[in-house]
Specification:
Elements (H helix, E strand, L loop, with lengths): L2 H25 L18 E6 L4 H17 L6 E6 L1 H9 L5 E3 L2 H11 L6 E7 L2 E3 L1 E2 L1 E6 L15 E4 L5 H13 L9 E4 L5 H9 L4 E5 L2 H7 L8 E4 L16 E2 L2 E4 L5 H12 L6 H5 L4 E3 L5 H9 L13 H14 L4 H44 L6 E5 L5 E4 L1 H7 L3 H4 L4 H5 L5 H14 L6 E6 L5 E13 L3 E10 L1 H23 L3 E6 L4 E4 L1 H7 L3 H4 L4 H5 L15 H8 L3 E8 L5 E13 L2 E11 L1 H16 L1 H52 L4 H32 L7 E3 L1 H18 L3 E6 L6 E3 L1 H18 L4 E11 L3 E10 L6 H4 L11 H7 L5 H11 L4 E6 L3 E12 L12 H6 L6 E5 L3 H13 L3 E5 L2 H10 L4 E4 L8 H9 L9 E5 L4 H10 L3 E4 L4 H16 L1
Parallel strand pairs: 1-2, 1-3, 8-9, 8-10, 26-28, 32-33, 32-34, 34-35, 35-36
Antiparallel strand pairs: 3-13, 4-5, 4-13, 4-14, 6-12, 7-10, 7-11, 15-16, 15-19, 17-18, 18-19, 20-21, 20-24, 22-23, 23-24, 25-27, 27-31, 28-29, 29-31, 30-31
Helix pairs in contact: 1-8, 1-12, 23-24, 23-31, 24-25, 25-26, 26-29, 32-33
Length: about 1050
């Protein structure tokens, strides 16, 4: 079982037991009887007072986290902290200004005697040198070289150093031990008070100003850890041995500071406070902040009471009964002289007997009252815990005889109460191999009136089967049986399953850790190694035992590569442990055999409950990388000729790559230019034919020519798109998108092909009354590609083209387009790669159906740029549904055109009379431009190249120039630059009308001085609108 699980189980059992027991203790206090319950002002803050044995600001800072914890525990009241001195705290309690106190044991006994305080709610657990201690004691020490003092009986008449005679742990405990040897302090020795800290008493002893010293347990060990003391210089007098107590000891153990509620404190509030402080996590954030380990069930403070009475400390110093022993010790000589006076002696003896009789009577009455209270307490205890199934409770005497057995014990162990009571606990549930050890532990607990640390046990039930429990013990006084022990057991059957799962998880993590090729180890915040994997051990040459518990920096990270010392303050592991930042650096480690090697180091902070608890380090040996780097340095420093040669080769390769790239760009540009030029003629002629008037059938055919030309243009753009996609330069235009027009355009273009294959074309669409902004060409391109694929792969049935609105808001809409067929379908293993470039269903597809395999890849890329995606749903033999989604802005300014044919001439008439120069080297494009422009009244001159255009612009005043880019003798860019240098031509509109369609072509035109840009094939309506826009500016 892992340490984490064990700790969790320990805390669980301890908390449950402590809260139940403290409930018993609170119920046992008669101050909580119903007759004394008074109304409580829940709005008034609850005062929690702490004794100030240090300066008040320091005490306030130390204990405020505990008060904050209580305020956050939802106890129904607000708590305020009061730090008070002895007189202030006594006065506040007397004035009933305090509800709870945390004070030293002697002060608690004094307040109990004067003010009738209740039994404690809890006892403080100190954290001393990583030991959790709820008890402390005193130490009597002398110098090891002082042979004259070997026992405490030798201290009579000696000089004894102590921090204060008012201190329980550094004076009063030791004084009681000396009193038991007949030495009365301070009468029988000289007391030297050194003040705090208690180290001063030890220093006075070593300096020779004192023969002995009294200190609290733990002081000597702390001085030794801090390097202030060599323990061999000291000799411990009256040494005591107590199991599990880690410090040297000369007295019995006494409980630590108690937390107590006042008699007037609300009973329910006292219970909740007790439960809260006992549930405070041991070693947790609050405990660490207050510099304690936590709290535990109340200790037995009767030994403190007995000490104070025997030493006659306040409040037991006044009106003490005089015993015969006291009289003889003080007046022995006088009594001897007066022995002859029998009458006086008899009177004295009679007087003493009278006083003793009164004291005995008083003690008897107090004992009867205490017995009655104890019986009532036990009755309440039984009523509360008899039917608690979560906690098995057994009460038994020192010989094991069972006196109490609750219902939960019957459930766990199988014995009913009738079967268990009066029997030996050792015989019923203790396995035979453990009985001797358990009997010894029980005797020790009865002797010391204290339980042993809670732990996990494997006991037996009625069927002789093992039962795993978490067990804790409490020794207390009972009315009926005297001193008895109560054992509280929690059944761990459910936790066993949790443990198994955690063990399995840890095993998996260990397999992963041990299987890593990189070295991995962890440290705490001080750089101490807490774990390490086999790969790290192999690289470092150490064993696991040599590394765990050692400081990693001192062991294998202590020097730089050059042998210089490596200060630990500069170590990246140390820095991450301080600031919590991850670091990745190159460092140098040293193997056990003294060999160093370079590493790549990653240091990551390790957090526990949000608090930095250490680091995790991953490192790898980079010797090979360093060797290669050193070889490169060697080549760089000593083989300059090879470097120059390699540089030349790389430069040639770079030039070749750049030349190939330029050739590719030039090829694509030229291809685009050469195809767009005749396409401009096709579209232009179609426009002229439509202008001259055609039949409806001819108009329909012209529409198909127009759509087919646009589709051809889209194919050209596909090739350009792939180039732009590879270069990451693909951009979209923002133009009005009419969904109905797109759908009808696609159906008109492909309807004849669909019918020729005997297929039905179905159109399903939502209503799209508004227009959007987007790239209609790209959407059309994608749908044409989808429909064309559906035609190829569908033998019979139908093809359905759909448009749906998926989402809509004030500024945008998300549309989904689908093309569904009844074709062959696509296997699942093919779908994942179907949208990759140059991919189709299989190699036979290319041979049977053709295609480049670019369309789907471009479609998905376009859809993603437009804020959507593309994909396919398909089953072999049942057809496919290809879809794409796009997010389009709403075009608030654009409305579907309502102009009539009579409106157009009026608008185009505005262009009549303007003189325009057209620079174009292609005759058919010249003809089309000339016809289009002269038809609307524009005066047109033609130039065959850029040089001719320059000469004509120098001699003739033109209102606008349409300039091609690629022309013989002088291209359009140079011609534009030269025209701009002519007088008065700085603001002349020069519009590029070119088959060079790249975005960079547009930029080149702008830099050369052109005003606008039209790409071929030119849309006549767009041409007229462009002309009107620029010419209207010149007119104004």
């Amino acid at each position: 079982m892992s340490d984490t699980v064990h700790l969790a189980l320990c805390l669980l059992g301890r908390r449950l037991a402590e809260m139940l027991v403290v409930s018993f203790l609170l119920l046992a206090n008669p101050a909580y009887s119903a007759s004394e319950i008074v109304a409580v002002d829940t709005q008034k803050p609850v005062k929690f007072a702490v004794l100030a044995f240090r300066p008040k600001p320091e005490m306030l800072a130390r204990w405020q986290p505990l008060i904050d914890f209580l305020n956050q525990a939802e106890l129904g009241r607000h708590f305020d902290l009061e730090v008070l001195t002895y007189p202030e705290l006594s006065a506040a309690v007397h004035a009933r200004q305090i509800e709870f106190i945390l004070t030293q044991p002697g002060h608690y006994i004094a307040l109990t005697h004067r003010e009738g305080l209740l039994s404690p709610l809890a006892t403080l657990v100190e954290n001393e040198a990583d030991h959790a201690l709820a008890n402390f004691g005193g130490v009597i020490v002398t110098r090891a070289d002082n042979a004259a003092i070997s026992t405490i009986a030798n201290l009579r008449g000696k000089q004894i150093a102590t921090s204060s005679t008012g201190s329980l742990g550094s004076y009063q405990m030791q004084a009681l031990e000396l009193l038991q040897q007949g030495i009365h302090l301070p009468a029988d020795a000289r007391i030297i008070e050194t003040g705090q800290p208690q180290d001063k008493a030890i220093q006075a002893l070593l300096a020779g100003t004192a023969d002995a010293a009294f200190v609290r347990t733990g002081v000597i060990e702390a001085m030794q850890r801090e390097g202030k003391l060599d323990a061999s210089q000291l000799h411990i007098l009256n040494p005591q041995t107590v199991s599990n107590f880690p410090f040297v000891l000369s007295t019995r153990l006494y409980p630590e500071w108690p937390v107590a509620a006042m008699p007037w404190t609300d009973e329910d509030l006292a219970r909740r406070v007790a439960a809260a402080i006992l549930a405070l996590p041991h070693g947790g954030v609050v405990a660490n902040a207050t510099k304690i380990h936590g709290f535990t069930i109340p200790g037995d403070y009767r030994p403190v009471d007995d000490l104070m009475r025997r030493l006659r400390l306040p409040p037991f110093d006044a009106a003490q009964e005089i015993t015969a022993a006291d009289i003889w010790a003080k007046y022995g000589v006088i009594l001897a002289l007066l022995a002859l006076l029998a009458t006086a002696l008899l009177l004295s003896i009679s007087f003493v007997l009278y006083r003793a009789n009164r004291r005995l009577k008083s003690e008897k009455e107090r004992s009867a009252q205490a017995t009655q209270q104890l019986k009532a307490s036990e009755s309440r205890f039984r009523s509360i815990f008899e039917d608690v199934d979560a906690l098995a409770i057994q009460g038994y005497l020192i010989d094991g005889t069972i006196i109490y057995w609750n219902h939960a014990s019957e459930i766990i162990y199988g014995y009913s109460a009738d079967e268990a009571l009066g029997k030996s606990l050792f015989d019923l549930i203790i396995p035979p191999p453990m009985r001797s050890e358990v009997e010894t532990a029980v005797r020790w607990m009865f002797d010391h009136r204290a339980g042993v640390p809670a732990k996990r046990l494997r006991l037996i039930d009625k069927k002789m089967q093992l039962v795993e429990v978490f067990s804790t013990h409490v020794v207390t006084e009972t009315a009926e049986h005297g001193v008895a022990m109560f054992c509280l057991d929690i059944n761990l059957a459910d936790q066993a399953r949790v443990e198994s799962a955690l063990v399995e998880s840890e095993a998996r993590q260990r397999v992963i850790l041990e299987g890593l090729g990189e070295g991995v180890f962890g440290t705490d915040t001080n750089g101490i190694c807490t774990f390490i994997n086999p790969a790290a051990l192999a690289m470092l040459g150490f064993t696991e035992d040599e590394i765990l518990g050692a400081n990693q920096h001192q062991l294998f990270h202590f020097k730089h590569r050059d042998g210089a010392d490596y200060p630990s303050a500069q170590c990246p592991v140390r820095l991450t442990a301080l600031d919590g930042k991850t670091r990745r650096v190159r460092e140098w480690f040293w193997r056990k055999n003294g060999e160093g090697f370079p590493i790549q180091l990653t240091v990551t902070p390790k957090l526990r409950n949000g608090v930095l608890s250490g680091t995790v380090i991953v490192f790898s040996d980079i010797c090979e990388n360093v060797r290669i780097a050193e070889e490169l340095d060697h080549y760089r420093n000593h083989l300059e000729e090879q470097v120059r040669l390699r540089t030349t080769q790389l430069e040639e390769a770079r030039r070749a790559a750049e030349a190939a790239n330029r050739a590719k760009s030039a090829f694509l540009a030229n291809m685009s230019h050469e195809i767009r030029t005749p396409m401009n003629a096709v579209l232009g002629m179609a426009h002229l034919m439509r202008r001259d008037g055609v039949s409806s059938q001819q108009a329909e055919r012209l529409d198909k020519i127009d759509h087919a030309t646009q589709h051809l243009l889209a194919i050209i753009n596909d090739i350009l798109d792939i180039s732009k996609i590879e270069a990451g330069k693909l951009t979209l235009e923002q133009a009005p998108v009419d969904v109905r027009e797109i759908l009808h355009g696609v159906t008109n273009l492909l309807d004849e092909r669909i019918r020729s294959r005997g297929l039905a074309l179905l159109l399903e669409s939502d209503d799209f009354p508004e227009c959007y902004l987007g790239d209609p060409t790209r959407i059309t391109q994608s749908l044409i590609n989808y429909v064309a694929n559906a035609i190829k792969f569908t033998e019979r049935g139908s093809i359905t083209l759909r448009a749906r609105r998926l989402a809509d808001d004030e500024s945008s809409a998300t549309l989904r387009f689908e093309v569904e067929d009844t074709g062959i379908g696509i296997p699942p293993e093919i779908r994942a790669s179907l949208f990759d470039a140059f991919k189709q269903a299989d190699s036979s597809t290319t041979r049977k159906y053709g295609g480049t395999g670019l369309g789907l890849a471009i479609t998905r890329h376009l859809a993603q740029i437009m804020g959507g995606d593309a994909g396919v749903d398909s089953e072999p033999g049942r057809g496919s549904c290809f879809w794409l989604t796009v997010k389009l802005k709403k075009n608030q300014a654009f409305l579907p055109s309502t102009a009539t044919n009579q409106d157009q001439p009026i608008e185009l008439a505005l262009l009549a009379g303007w003189r325009i120069l057209v620079a174009e080297d292609e005759p058919i494009n010249q003809e089309i431009a000339h016809e289009l422009l002269t038809d609307i009244g524009v005066l047109v001159d033609l130039a065959n190249n850029g040089r001719q255009a320059l000469e004509m612009a120098a001699t003739t005043r033109y209102d606008l120039i349409l300039m091609d880019m690629q022309m013989p003798e002088m291209d359009g860019l140079e011609a534009t630059r030269q025209i701009r240098l002519l007088p008065g031509q700085k603001n002349l509109p020069i519009v590029a009308m070119t088959a060079n369609a790249y975005a960079e072509d547009r930029e080149r035109c702008r830099v050369a001085g052109m005003t606008d840009f039209l790409s071929k094939p030119v849309d006549p309506d767009l041409l007229f609108a462009t002309l009107l826009r620029h010419l209207s500016k010149r007119q104004s």
